[in-house]
Specification:
7 helices, mainly alpha, Rna Polymerase Sigma Factor, Chain: A
């Protein structure tokens, strides 16, 4: 198993080296490895298929143009995802997404301290949650997507969005 992982790492590094040298075949292979994940990342933020496609394409172009700045301290996928997230947020900001303090909305309350937790757990399918997230206003959708689906913590989200972490 270790040999397979090492071979994959070497192939991946060879492709990245090819990209640094402007090898279009290597760029296409990297694109094929990452395009679905990057498209889905953008789609969860902008909630528009055409815009997500454009952002994904622009992000790959940007990554290939700036690949010499990739240091390897994080995985290439994480580096590329950061580009996609930033471009998606830029597109969203052009639409004037508003990030509000959720506590300011009537009817929304924090029940985390409620000691009378229900004995029954509700089974919610992932697709239902995703559909519900898609219906949220941009600001809420972005924060939930970054937290639940992309794995960013509260402080990282606050930094990415230039907002207070308590918002």
């Amino acid at each position: 198993m270790a040999n397979v992982e090492a071979a994959f790492r070497n192939l991946h590094q060879d492709l990245l080296d090819g990209c640094k040298n402007g090898d279009q075949k290597a760029q296409f292979q990297i694109y094929k490895l990452y395009y679905k994940a990057m498209y889905n990342t953008s789609l969860r933020i902008v909630n528009d298929t055409m815009e997500a496609e454009d952002i994904m394409q622009e992000s790959f172009l940007s990554a290939f143009e700036k690949i010499d700045t990739y240091s390897g301290t994080v995985s290439f996928g994480a580096w590329l995802k950061k580009i996609v997230v930033n471009r998606s947020l830029d597109a969203l900001n052009k639409r004037k997404a508003v990030f509000e303090d959720i506590e300011s909305h009537v009817g929304i309350r924090d029940e985390s301290g409620d000691d009378t937790a229900r004995s029954e757990e509700i089974d919610v399918r992932v697709e239902e949650v995703k559909e519900a997230i898609e219906r949220l206003p941009d600001g809420y959708r972005v924060i939930l997507s970054l937290y639940l689906l992309e794995g960013y913590d509260h402080d990282e989200i606050a930094e990415i969005l230039s907002i207070n972490s308590s918002t």
